Amino acid sequence: MNQVIQKLAVTFAAFLAGTSLRAQLPSTGETAPSSWTLTTAFASQYLFRGARLGGASLQPSVEYDAGPLGLGLWTNVPLQEQVPGQSDTEGDFYGFYVVDLTKTTSLIPGLTVYTYPNAKGKDGFYRATVEPNFALNYAIGGVRLTPKIYYDFVRRGPTLELTASVALPLTSLGTELDFTGTAGTFIWKDAVSGANPTVKNWGNYYLVGISAPYQVSRDSKVMFGWAYTKGSNNYFKSGTAGKTRNEATLGRGVLTLSYAISF
To answer: In which domain, by residue range, is 146 found?
Structure first.
């Protein structure tokens, strides 16, 4: 199974790198305008769905957009306190397609292939997982709401998530304040690689954050951000044994700084 997933990730990367990649505009059939965005980012902590996977990290990414189609690669390179098999290191290939229903509402199907090159199955870590997702994005009175569902085919379980965001313009300063809140819950039936009996993992999490972008030039910007994220009721359970708490679940404030350039 993992070999199939790895081949899929390699194929996805090759597809992303192809310079002949094009998307068609739905209404005209013409080739959509395309762009590349390169982002280098620093995060003071690395947390994923309420679980801490490492300390300070670099998180560079690249994304190709052509009309409604987006393809990208996001990576995490730990600088300290890395978790072997997870944050040391991670590369996530992703894709999405935006289907506009109205001026304020869109459907966004997507797919993420998470890869962990240094993971070892004997230690219970997967080297890759595949997670399709589906989101509804709509705005009400200046607030953007995004309910989203994921399903991990390797860990065998769903994640349900709701995000709300609102932007406060600061015209005199040439920027804005972006406020974001996210709440989610998940349950995986096969959370540990090679475990017999299988190990379940479930939990809840939330995040509240604020960020401020600043346009450096027409094609580049910097972003400053802070968020508090916390996991709760996160447990493992193997067979008929009692549940045990996931010790990586905690609450942390996370500072981020990024620079993005498009061409």
So the answer is: 2-22+35-257
